[in-house]
Design goal:
About 2% of the residues have low confidence. The chain has 21 helices and 10 strands. The strands form 2 sheets. The chain has an 8-stranded antiparallel beta barrel with strand order 3-4-5-6-7-8-9-10. The chain is of the alpha+beta class.
């Protein structure tokens, strides 16, 4: 296959069918095009465009929006913010427990990633490791030598894994932007910190879309048949760690991250996990934690249905293997790296490991599919619930407090240091909004502040003059370059301001997005472009 469309179109057919679209008329045309080796790439482009244009059948029984406002309108009642009664030291221990629990669960599942359940158990039996009560043994020829550092008696640190790269990326973005983190901020963090070849499926597509100047939310949609796969769900943890007892905020931050690469259930998976993590700092009841996670996603989505099914099966059946059979029977048709079926295994692992960290990660990993992702998520939630001091040394001691990563400038990390930095972000996140040091004007709730007029702006490369006209058109005079650029997509919500303008870079125009606040007669915030950011401040003239 010599074109992007040829590579992606089969997966897109499946994705569209799962979203409730009728692909019956298009599928045979796609198959004929594949059968004809002379088919031009333009044919696949046209077929892909037709698939993109499909809408779910009216009989599709689910409500699955991808914008935050509608998601919130369709969610069940829930405790949007809970009373948090933790000492500073306890919060620190619980956050550290989340990091350690995630790393150990990830390391347990890493050697058998993608293996089906029967293959995992057959291997464990052949190595006399059933019932599993430690990391997975290494056998030459059965497990790749590249994975040996994550096997029993060979672990000296948490080996590099994308499941552990993402919490670091999220931490870096939160340290810079705090609760005002935007999807564009997150995209720029990826571009500046992550090598392209270390990203997979939906993340790989989104990164390529960023480079081609397709920014969120378009980056999640354009030629991305993996947009409901597990990639966003595994990025949730950091947003739960920094919002203890605040599931709504955790889900909101997770949404801003997820929507750069995912839609619908792909987004809900990250929101669900982040909200569960936030709740785990307040309640130790796993069923309540799961219910709180569900309260932040649409009640009538496929993910919610799968979670409810799994909870019911766990209550009905006493053996996890029988629950797994039910999950496989109803949800086994999804890709092994889809959000929905893997989330069901996470819920199963949480319930069977509700008061036993080891049982939780072992049951989850033995379930197969995306073993490192699911082991990491279950380990993270149980770790945050129990705290680092309550985790078995057998699982966390071998990690030697080290986590390897490909994130730029963060290649060899102390897990305890990452946890402490996360704790500092959480402290700031929980504080009430600070007043401007010179007294910001009071804002009527829901009212937009006045941006129209002229502003002189200070940026690293010189003065600029921003003009916003009465009809909300605008321009920026780039005085350092002697150019004038049109300002687009001007948005004012309360005192939050955003807009986009272009800077001429020879053969191309580079878009720069401003996100900030208007405080009286002052405007300040951050500008972001292709993987870089700089501060901008201004005053009305």
């Amino acid at each position: 296959m010599d074109s992007l469309e040829r590579q992606m179109i089969r997966a897109e057919l499946v994705q569209r069918r799962e979203e409730g679209c009728d692909v019956a008329a298009l599928e045979p045309r796609v198959e004929r095009a594949f059968a004809d080796k002379e088919t031009d790439a333009a044919v696949f482009t046209a077929l892909y465009d037709e698939l993109d244009a499909l809408e779910p059948d009216p009989s599709f029984p689910y409500e699955e929006p991808s914008d935050l406002e509608t998601i919130r309108a369709l969610r069940p009642d829930g405790p949007r913010r809970m009373d948090l009664d933790l000492t500073d030291e306890t919060m620190r221990d619980r956050i550290y427990g989340g990091w350690l629990g995630r790393a150990a669960g990830c390391s347990l599942g890493k050697p058998v990633e993608g293996w089906p359940r029967k293959r995992i158990d057959a291997y464990l039996e052949s190595t006399h490791a059933l019932p599993l009560d430690d990391y997975i043994p290494f056998t030459e020829g059965s497990i790749s030598p590249f994975l040996k550092t994550s096997t029993r008696d060979n672990i000296e640190f948490m080996a590099r894994d994308d499941d552990m790269d993402y919490p670091i990326l999220g931490l870096l973005a939160l340290e810079r932007h705090g609760g005002e983190l935007t999807s564009r901020n997150m995209a720029n963090t990826w571009l500046s910190r992550m090598p392209f070849h270390t990203l997979y499926t939906a993340e790989n597509v989104a990164y390529r879309n960023f480079v081609n100047r397709r920014w969120p939310p378009e980056s999640a949609l354009w030629r991305n048949p993996f947009r409901e796969w597990i990639g966003a769900q595994i990025r949730a943890d950091i947003f739960g760690y920094v919002t203890p007892g605040w599931p709504e905020k955790a889900a909101e931050l997770a949404y801003r991250d997820a929507s750069i690469s995912h839609v619908k259930n792909g987004i809900y998976g990250e929101m669900f996990v982040a909200a569960m993590l936030a709740a785990s700092f307040v309640t130790s009841d796993i069923k309540e934690i799961i219910d709180i996670g569900l309260s932040e996603i649409p009640a009538k989505c496929r993910l919610s249905e799968a979670v409810h099914d799994t909870v019911s099966w766990c209550e009905e059946l006493s053996e996890w293997e029988k629950v797994w059979d039910r999950i496989f029977e109803k949800y086994g048709h999804y890709s092994g790296v889809h959000t929905i079926n893997n989330a069901a295994l996470v819920v199963m692992g949480l319930i069977f490991g509700s008061n036993d960290y080891e049982n939780g990660i072992v049951v989850t990993v033995r379930g197969g599919w995306d073993t490192d992702c699911n082991g990491a998520t279950v380990g993270s939630i149980l770790g945050a619930k129990l705290g680092a001091g309550s985790l078995p040394d057998k699982w966390i001691g071998v990690l030697s407090d080290r986590l390897m990563s490909v994130v730029r400038d963060c290649n060899d990390n102390r897990i305890s240091e990452l946890a402490e930095r996360t704790h500092q972000v959480a402290i700031q996140m929980m504080l009430p909004p600070a007043a401007d040091e010179e007294g910001a004007q009071a804002l009527v709730e829901g009212a937009a502040v006045e941006l129209r007029g002229k502003w002189t702006l200070d940026v690293t490369h010189g003065k600029q003059i921003l003009t916003v006209n009465d009809d909300w058109s605008g321009q920026i005079e780039l005085t350092a370059f002697g150019e004038i650029s049109k300002v687009r997509n001007i948005r004012v919500e309360g005192n939050k301001v955003s807009f986009v303008y272009g800077v001429n870079k020879g053969e191309m125009v580079m878009d720069i997005e401003f996100n900030g606040r208007l405080e009286g007669d002052r405007l300040r915030g951050l500008c972001s472009g292709n993987g870089f950011e700089f501060e901008m401040s201004g005053v009305r003239i």
